[in-house]
Write a structure and sequence with these properties.
The complex is a heterodimer of chains A (196) and B (242).
Chain A (H helix, E strand, L loop, with lengths): L4 H10 L7 H13 L1 H18 L1 E2 L6 E2 L5 H4 L7 E5 L2 H10 L5 E4 L17 H10 L4 E4 L5 H13 L4 E4 L15 H9 L5
Parallel strand pairs in A: 3-4, 3-5, 5-6
Antiparallel strand pairs in A: 1-2
Helix pairs in contact in A: 1-2
Chain B lengths: L1 E15 L3 E8 L3 E7 L16 E8 L7 E8 L2 H5 L2 H17 L7 H12 L7 H15 L18 E4 L6 E3 H4 L7 E2 L12 H20 L9 H13 L1
Helix pairs in contact in B: 2-7, 3-4, 4-6, 6-7
Classes of the chains: A alpha/beta (196), B alpha+beta (242).
């Protein structure tokens, strides 16, 4: 009988990834084995490279392969604006839009009264340091429209006297129809209405 | 299969797996109760699965002591009201974390539930909310067996010139009866007995007293639990605003 322990282990590891279960992991591994040259080996090499070189940017907390990430090294992005986000996934979402041209700061979470996440558990002291050293004129708080997200936003705003602090608007999403919106979003949109 | 229907206020929502959340709610007839909400991370449910939200819950489980699953229907979302209001947010966090910390699981407290809903309905009413919150903390202590008795002096029985509270018994002490023991007693802010001003400093003094009994009596009786940091943050916000 063929020894499939390595393959089983690969399936087991793949099944732990977000969005995959044992069945889909099995399909993915089978596909990789069938495309060994085009997919499996390049993927294994890429994973090895990332595994040995991936690290957090010492400045902003972004993930890259150098101590200081590309965004922080790019002088064109030193426009005095720092966008504060909760997580790297949020940074990637902002970058997808290609609208924001400043730098980022990743908190690594939000304050949580119930899960005992306090300011000292987040990268807030580093943000305060950066504001002093990078001639920051505006801090944009791009945190979730959740109780924890906005609690964090208010806390950070209190820690930053003398800097313009703004936050993302809340309201009707692009392509959204009022009929399908929850009442909280409609309330927020109505409160943030503007002259037309 | 065990099943019940109740209404509740959400206290905490924590991710569970990739698509579900574990919701902790303070329900009218079943007290503090948790359950899984499948699909709770999705766009449809997540807007109203926020602390402070009032929901209709159907809980189902195979056995009584299982975690079980909730089906949730929104009654009232308070998120939009509190998000831009620092005091309301701090207040909501303090209420939710205190209830989560001190309420026994699956034990109904209908009077406290009603008081909590009234308090949550007042979120955003900055003028009256601090006093309402103080009264809610007094009700919380009373409901859980640590009521303060501020009607008369514990020593002389007089109802005049009540100025202190005994940290041991939670009973009022008059100025004359306190004598040399005054410095060992807690100050009785008149607002605690419905007298005098209900401004920032008076509320702060009164909350220091209720905080003492919550921390040193109520929470201490529960073992290794600690006073939620959210309450200290609420006090800091109140202090800054007054």
């Amino acid at each position: 009988m063929a020894d499939t322990r390595d393959i089983d282990q690969l399936i087991d590891l793949m099944a732990r990834l977000p969005g995959l279960g044992p069945r889909s992991a099995r399909r993915a591994v089978l596909h990789l084995i069938k495309k060994r040259g085009q997919l499996l080996l390049p993927l294994a090499e890429a994973m090895h490279r990332v595994g040995t070189s991936a690290r957090e940017c010492l400045n902003c907390g972004n993930i890259g392969t150098t101590d200081i990430c590309d965004i922080c090294r790019n002088e064109n992005r030193a426009n005095g604006q720092i966008c504060v986000v909760e997580d790297v996934a949020d940074l990637w979402a902002m970058e997808r839009s290609q609208v924001f041209k400043g730098r980022f700061h990743i908190l690594g979470g939000t304050l949580s009264a119930l899960d005992a996440v306090g300011p000292e558990d987040l990268r807030i002291p580093k943000l305060i340091d950066r504001i002093a050293t990078e001639q920051v004129t505006e801090v944009i708080l791009a945190l979730g429209a959740t109780v924890d997200g906005q609690t964090t936003a208010h806390y950070i705003a209190d820690q930053l006297p003398g800097v313009t602090v703004t936050s993302l608007a809340q309201g009707v999403p692009v392509g959204g129809e009022l009929d399908y919106l929850d009442d909280g979003t409609i309330t927020a949109a109505l409160r943030a209405r503007r002259a037309f | 299969m065990i099943e019940w229907r109740d209404e509740g206020a959400l206290l905490a929502v924590r991710p569970h797996g990739e698509t579900s959340v574990i919701v902790e709610a303070f329900t009218l007839q079943h007290g503090r109760h948790s359950g899984v909400v499948r699909g709770g991370i999705g766009r449809k449910l997540s807007p109203f699965l926020q602390p402070g939200g009032q929901v209709e819950l159907v809980w189902k489980a195979r056995l009584e002591d299982h975690l079980g699953a909730f089906a949730v229907e929104p009654i009232r979302s308070r998120t939009a009201v509190v998000l831009s209001n620092k005091l309301a947010l701090a207040g909501l966090n303090a209420v939710a974390s205190l209830l989560s910390q001190v309420l026994p699981e699956r034990e109904a407290h209908p009077p406290l539930y009603d008081r909590t809903i009234t308090l949550l309905d007042l979120l955003g009413e900055g003028e009256v909310w601090p006093l309402a919150y103080l009264q809610w903390e007094l009700a919380l202590l009373e409901e859980l067996g640590f009521a303060l008795d501020l009607t008369q002096c514990a020593v002389t029985g007089t109802t005049e010139d009540l100025a202190y509270i005994s940290p041991k018994t939670g009973r009022a002490v008059s100025r004359a009866a306190a004598g040399v023991w005054a410095e060992r007693l807690l100050p009785l802010a008149p607002v605690l007995i419905g007298e005098g001003d209900a401004g920032g400093p008076e509320i702060a003094t009164a909350l220091a007293v209720t905080g003492y009994f919550i921390e040193h009596r109520l929470i201490k009786s529960l073992g290794d639990r600690t006073m939620p940091a959210a309450r200290a943050r609420l006090l800091a916000v109140l202090e800054r605003q007054s």
